[in-house]
């Protein structure tokens, strides 16, 4: 029995970019089908922070009315360097605010402002507030029977399945739970609600961050009648007279075809799990180092391979081919492990990062991408690309370290399984971690000279608004700097990971997949991380993936609808 499907537009992938494209196209009157390789929808989006960088958007204009288009252009020109694309930047700045207004007006998508500064707010055109927005928390019971198909958040950054926003307002209560009655009551209420949800539904119902973004977009798509077909990987693009007109789809019941009159949009999440491609693209892998990506295992570069098979171009051009994320390997037992992204601990006072030599190499309170890039370069010529985050007993009890939670949570299990390294002295810690003892002792001694006064003359921690944003405002005079003083001491080994790829398929501004000669493959488009990043391999601010990805999905959908002759 044939299961072949006909539609106007086929979107391959169910992350934010794919769903934004599908919803916009549906609202323009096109018949849209979304397919997803995995048995759950949401892609990398569902594991992410759910932040969008949308300069001059409706929320940001209220926070920072003095921001200007010229300031944003100047900042992006500085950040993207040789890869600055005036036409793409203009399209992004023109359409980003329109995209936000459209989704808030027409769908279940709601955003809230954040206090995030740009990652380099001291650079020309940088802003200390007003460019990053966040998906509003969501009760996933709104998905109805499809609730079980929403991808779960990343296990390592939840607490018994409970999710957190990366904002001081939320997390500060958990850090202060043993010191403040207000925080204790806040945490107790959240835990009680969460445990009730787990008992009734076996998962968190009130979701935040990227899980909320993915859920809101999925609910919007499904309510419009857009099918999201999970466990449905695309095998190849179907061509007819030089035009993409659908795809061959695999399923448990057998292969079938989806024909798409107006074309196919690739939104497969880039290639962070494509072992062969990243081995060529990532310098730390080229020299034999380890790489652990917390992105979905299904993001194996399907979109890039299908585009290349038709003459599309996927060059590795950027100095940094991915959004680098320092990560640690969390043993779960029975040979299984999780990947913990170090999103918060590096900013906290009393935590430093050192190389195997025991020496610091960068400002630990810079963005994850900047720290990752610095680590890659600091380890050039070495097989192992790794650092160790170091802290003392007091800091461990106050903030935790990596997957190890602050007091009163126990540490014994993580010490026994090797995740957390302990030493009564710095020399013992260094020996247990494989770090040079003399180097570590000298580093801590020199660091403490300034740290006792809240200073970091070596790397300037706390200098920028972004350094301070995720630090500890209660730590005076510098929220990022405190000495490392009394044992026992702790360390966690950190290696390179990523949040997704930056290099990708070469496209026109409107998303047409281009051949080497610059001509478009008719009917074939790419959005999201399948498309080469507008940021040129840099990371200017929180949400520079979702913001441009949803915006260009919106642009691509309108272009396809316009070509189809659908009235605006």
TrEMBL record:
What the entry lists under InterPro entries is as follows: FAD-dep_OxRdtase_2_FAD-bd (IPR003953), FAD-oxidoreductase_2 (IPR050315), FAD/NAD-bd_sf (IPR036188), Succ_DH/fumarate_Rdtase_cat_sf (IPR027477)
**Listed cofactors:** FAD
What Gene3D superfamilies does this protein map onto? FAD/NAD(P)-binding domain (3.50.50.60), Succinate dehydrogenase/fumarate reductase flavoprotein, catalytic domain (3.90.700.10)
Keywords (alphabetical) are: FAD, Flavoprotein, Oxidoreductase
One Pfam family here: FAD_binding_2
GO molecular function list: oxidoreductase activity
Q: Which GO terms describe its biological process?
A: steroid metabolic process
Give every FAD-dependent oxidoreductase 2 FAD-binding domain span: 8-545
Extract the SUPFAM superfamilies matched here: FAD/NAD(P)-binding domain, Succinate dehydrogenase/fumarate reductase flavoprotein, catalytic domain
Record keywords: rRNA processing included?
no
List the protein's name.
Fumarate reductase/succinate dehydrogenase flavoprotein domain protein
């Amino acid at each position: 029995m044939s299961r072949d499907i006909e539609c106007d537009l086929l979107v391959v992938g169910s992350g934010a970019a794919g769903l934004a494209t599908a919803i916009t196209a549906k609202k323009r009157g096109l018949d849209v089908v979304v397919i997803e390789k995995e048995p759950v929808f949401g892609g990398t989006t569902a594991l992410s922070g759910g932040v969008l960088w949308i300069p001059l958007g409706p929320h940001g204009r209220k926070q920072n009315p003095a921001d200007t288009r010229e300031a944003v252009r100047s900042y992006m020109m500085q950040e993207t360097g040789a890869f600055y694309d005036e036409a793409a930047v203009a399209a992004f700045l023109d359409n980003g605010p329109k995209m936000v207004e459209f989704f808030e007006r027409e769908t279940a998508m709601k955003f809230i402002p954040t206090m995030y500064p740009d990652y380099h707010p001291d650079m020309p055109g940088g802003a200390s507030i007003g460019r990053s927005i966040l998906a509003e928390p969501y009760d996933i019971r709104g998905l109805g029977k499809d609730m079980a198909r929403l991808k779960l958040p990343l296990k390592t950054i939840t607490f018994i399945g409970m999710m957190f926003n990366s904002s001081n307002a939320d997390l500060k209560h958990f850090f202060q739970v043993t010191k403040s009655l207000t925080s204790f009551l806040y945490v107790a209420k959240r835990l009680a609600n969460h445990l009730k949800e787990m008992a009734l539904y076996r998962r968190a119902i009130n979701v935040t961050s990227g899980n909320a973004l993915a859920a809101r977009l999925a609910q919007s798509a499904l309510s419009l009648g857009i099918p999201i077909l999970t466990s449905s990987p695309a095998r190849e693009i179907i061509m007819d007279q030089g035009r993409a007109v659908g795809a061959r789809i695999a399923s448990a019941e057998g292969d079938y075809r989806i024909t798409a009159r107006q074309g196919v949009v690739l939104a497969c999440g880039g290639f962070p799990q494509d072992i062969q491609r990243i081995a060529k693209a990532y310098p730390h892998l080229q020299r034999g180092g380890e790489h652990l990506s917390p992105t979905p295992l299904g993001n194996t570069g399907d979109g890039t391979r299908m585009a290349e098979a038709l003459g599309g171009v996927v060059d590795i051009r950027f100095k940094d081919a991915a959004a680098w994320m320092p990560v640690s390997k969390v043993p779960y037992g029975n040979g299984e492990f999780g990947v913990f992204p170090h999103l918060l601990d590096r900013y906290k006072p009393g935590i430093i990062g050192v190389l195997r030599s025991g020496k610091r190499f960068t400002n630990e309170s810079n963005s994850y991408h900047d720290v990752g890039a610095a680590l890659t370069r600091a380890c050039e010529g070495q097989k192992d690309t790794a650092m160790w985050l170091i802290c003392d007993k007091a800091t461990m009890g106050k903030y935790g370290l990596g997957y190890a939670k602050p007091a009163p949570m126990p540490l014994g299990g993580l010490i026994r399984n090797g995740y957390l390294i302990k030493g009564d002295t710095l020399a013992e810690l260094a020996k247990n971690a494989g770090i040079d003892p003399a180097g570590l002792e000298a580093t801590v001694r020199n660091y403490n000279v300034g740290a006792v006064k809240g200073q970091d003359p070596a790397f300037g921690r706390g200098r920028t608004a972004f350094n301070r944003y995720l630090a500890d405002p209660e730590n005076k005079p510098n929220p990022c700097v405190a000495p490392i003083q009394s044992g026992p001491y702790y360390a966690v080994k950190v290696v390179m990971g990523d949040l997704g790829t930056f290099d990708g398929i070469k496209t026109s501004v409107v998303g047409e997949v281009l051949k080497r000669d610059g001509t478009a493959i008719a009917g074939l488009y790419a959005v999201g991380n399948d498309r080469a990043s507008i940021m040129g391999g840099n990371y200017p601010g929180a949400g520079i993936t979702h913001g441009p990805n949803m915006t260009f999905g919106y642009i691509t959908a309108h272009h396809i609808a316009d070509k189809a002759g659908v009235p605006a």
